[in-house]
Design goal:
Helices cover about 40% and strands about 20% of the residues. The chain has 10 helices and 9 strands. Strands 1, 2, 3, 4, 5, 6, 7, 8 and 9 form a 9-stranded mixed β-sheet that branches. Helix 2 links the parallel strand 2 and strand 3.
């Protein structure tokens, strides 16, 4: 088996259907298995899958164990030489898989790769390529310095604004919305860290891949559509808790000993941003 595509779904039946249709076209002529892990959706996603995509290997959870746990469930059972973690709110092109396979087969030290993602208006999504969120990089991101100096290699290493988004680059961090990984690399560095319920697990895995001596590549020449945020409610307390909580987990796991001073500053900035968003949402009457 060449490729195992793994999609974690939660209440986005329509988007999942469109995503799978694009995956089926892109996987023609490539020996592929497709896994969908449904985290207890209530919108009829499972019935839709069973009716329209009987060839898909389905894991239907009776609860929502989180993004990392769900992906790991399928990774453990996958048999492909390559694994693609793919969000259900994405649409790949007909030649997406062929281009990725061609690149990774030539780049022998490539452990994982990501692609150029754009929204439904054609806007480039900055999370397609990112730098390692060291204390300084995170400080610039959280303080707004990265937005003020978007093209600076000093202030905007988080989104790597100084790198041409249409070109291929060796980068630190890839997005879990589309993350193509060699199965042999996963076996060496380990599965997704299940401490991360949602968000941050892609940063952690990308970093572990680098630490193991492999390269992460961003392919600006391969483009896909990502309906950013359609599978999550960003205006909820749960989302804020997960997003900023993931940043705290990563900082504590990787930087608390090496950069104690900056780690404290980052934690304070995270808390301040968290409180600010809670106040805004409270004023808007959103819970």
């Amino acid at each position: 088996m060449i490729l195992s595509v793994i999609i974690v779904n939660y209440n986005v039946k329509k988007l999942l259907k469109e995503c799978l249709q694009s995956v089926m076209i892109a996987s023609e002529d490539i020996e592929t298995e497709v896994w969908v892990v449904d985290n207890n959706s209530s919108d009829g996603s499972v019935n839709m899958l069973q009716k329209n995509f009987p060839q898909v290997k389905l894991i239907a959870n009776s609860n929502n164990p989180g993004f990392s746990v769900a992906n790991n469930q399928a990774i453990k059972r996958s048999i492909g030489e390559n694994i693609l973690l793919l969000n259900p709110d994405t649409i790949v092109q007909k030649d997406t898989f062929k281009k990725c396979l061609k690149f990774i087969n030539k780049a022998k030290n490539c452990g994982a790769l990501g692609v150029y993602m754009h929204d439904n208006f054609g806007n480039f999504l900055q999370e397609s390529k990112r730098g390692l969120p060291t204390p300084w990089v995170s400080f610039c991101k959280l303080s707004g310095l990265s937005k003020l100096f978007r093209n600076s290699s000093f202030f905007n290493r988080y989104n790597l604004g100084f790198l041409n988004s249409d070109e291929n680059h060796n980068v630190d961090i890839l997005s879990g919305a589309f993350m193509w990984i060699r199965k042999s690399v996963v076996e060496k560095v380990g599965l997704l860290d299940e401490t991360f319920f949602m968000y941050g697990e892609d940063i952690d895995l990308s970093y572990r891949i680098q630490k193991a001596g492999f390269e992460n590549w961003y392919l600006g020449t391969v483009k896909i559509l990502h309906y950013k945020g359609e599978s999550t409610n960003k205006h909820s307390y749960a989302h804020i808790k997960c997003f900023y909580g993931a940043m705290r987990i990563f900082a504590k796991k990787h930087f608390s000993k090496s950069y104690p001073f900056y780690a404290i500053i980052i934690q304070l900035l995270i808390i301040l941003n968290y409180v600010k968003l809670l106040i805004v949402l409270s004023l808007l009457g959103k819970k």
